[in-house]
Specification:
Keywords: Signal. This protein is α+β, with helices and mostly antiparallel strands and about 150 residues long. It has five helices and eight strands. The protein starts with 7 loop residues before the first helix and ends with a strand.
């Protein structure tokens, strides 16, 4: 099977990789290929204060995108304010909220939000960390965090 040919400049956005996994999971770049392409494209920034290893976080992105492509939902049960969605190595993707109510979205929305975090919060020492409001669910935030 031939991998999807994503130009390095386009792969500069993790969001493009996420969409490729969702649309063509069997042809999308692997975690290692995506991380290597991101390094080669020199898109990794120099923002400070980050805590997570990029490769582990990228593995979480890959996993959640594949789960979302199958139609599964991710979110937070009632009486909870945070819920881990994926934990691999030293990274995790979590759902966070400030209200006491259940909140569920397709896992694709969670991973698209995580892709936005990658696009803005991946730096040269291979660390990623950030929190963004979830796409299609303004009452929930998605975090790419450390464990």
């Amino acid at each position: 099977m031939v991998k999807t040919a994503i130009p390095l400049a386009a792969l500069a956005m993790a969001a493009s990789w996420v969409e490729d996994i969702i649309a063509h999971p069997d042809m999308a770049l692997t975690v290692d290929e995506a991380v290597e392409a991101a390094h080669a494209a020199d898109i990794i920034g120099s923002a400070g204060g980050l805590q997570k290893r990029g490769r582990d976080a990228a593995a979480c992105v890959d996993y959640v995108a594949r789960v979302g492509a199958l139609g599964y939902n991710c979110g937070i049960p009632p009486d909870d304010y945070n819920a881990p969605i994926c934990c691999i190595g030293g990274a995790q993707i979590v759902a966070l909220q400030s209200i006491n109510d259940a909140n569920w979205v397709n896992c694709n929305d969670v991973v698209r939000t995580a892709g936005l975090i990658f696009d803005n919060c991946w730096r040269a020492d291979d660390r990623v960390m950030g929190i963004e409001t979830c796409i299609n669910s303004p009452l929930m935030e998605i975090g790419v965090l450390g464990v």
